Amino acid sequence: MNLRSLLNRELLRKLTIIESLYYSKEVVSVEQIQELNHCSGPVVLNDVASINDSLDFFSIEKKNNSFKLNRPDYIGIDTAYAYFLSQSVEFQLLELLLYEKFPTVKRAANYLFISIPSAHRILNRLSDCLRPWNITIQKMPLRMVGNEAMIRHLFYLYYREKKVSVKQLYPREETAAAAQFIIHAFKEANGFTHSSVMQLRLLYNFHISLLRLKNNHPFEEKTLETQSICSPVHKLNDQYASIIRQEYGIEWSPAIQKECLWLYYGKYIIYTKKQLEIAQKESKSIDEISDNTDKYLIYLKRNLQVNWTEDQYIHLKTTILNELIIYRPTRDFLYLIATQRYNFVSTMEERYPCQIQRLFKIYQRFLVENELEVAEDGVFNQIYILLTSCPNILEKLSYYKKKIHLLIISIISPTHEHYLSSYLRNNLMGNYEISHVNLYDYPEKEWRKIIQAYDLILTSFTLSISNVTKPILAVESYPSADRLKKIQRTIMELAERE
What CATH number is given for 400-496 in this structure? Predict the structure, then answer.
């Protein structure tokens, strides 16, 4: 699920234009954008002009009724997401709910220079979006209550997509130093080695948690009790404790430390096999999710003939678990407006359609056989995790027990057949074997019998032979990407007939 519906129409149209141009390999026509945004040609031209006037790193070039996106090589689509979040009054109002500086809708509306009815409409739309996650927006006083883990996770997603820097988060260097000291000590005590993504997540959550505590929104007491991790910093040195008191009005204590590192104390992030074993004993819901994940990985192993070492299995299992635990109320995946994971899977599907479609089928069969329901974004997220976490997944998806026999026939030059063989071996996946035959060594009446001995015939010329039941594909001298996809798809379709 995403919160793009909160963006006003103009911002959503502009975002759609930038995304379509960013991911397109070719120019995009005015008519294509009109169809995407359900708007007229003049509206498209106005949106493009506005983008060129307001976005520093993106410019759209119009030529022959089509558009092309220009940007520096070091700028990614994340810059556009951050820009539109910062420009959206809807998401500005969402951010105010974290700080709780304005107790009434009227005061929040005045701060944002919008009408009170507009503020109510935005809050009602936001409430509708967040209701499935058991999150409620109260208007007297103005605040967000309910599922505390998802509330904090929501603001983490907001900070991440808005690209809020550590310096913006902690304007005083001393505050950042205190947060980093506590997080580092926690990691050292538990033997955790975090990626930069996780380090940033902890720094975001440290700040968000203290703000929620400042406004009297703690976790329920039993939520943060676990025996699976060590607590290293029970007593913080006076300097750091004083900084937290000044910045957040909170006295540091073991309970506050648990709140700031709730991802671990609440068993929302599981890092090691030992943590997992203890978490399963402490939480019935985690034990259930863990069992389903084991079933899923066994199902994958059986369908893909894949073998993992114990370390690989635990890494893959905890990666899947950590995505599922936080989203367990809905079995959906939440993002605000960024769609990198969805686009990753979609781009992979364009390049490897057969493999990705096979993975989708395997996952969907597993859901049906185990009577599980997962929303569309949740399905895409699971496919993303497998593609980025499971070693050699594409090769496994391409492999079938049945070996496909390919015959290459080229009359371009004596060396072309061998070049084509080498090129295909480097670009095609699966269980196949390539052979060469010089048809002109045989009478034409024997050609059909020769060709029928193979599963797929690739030629550099038009080969028309009657009563041949095997597929024949004419291939360019240098095979195009589309032709490679066709050959790959044919190999996998033939293998599936085993």
Answer: 3.40.50.2300
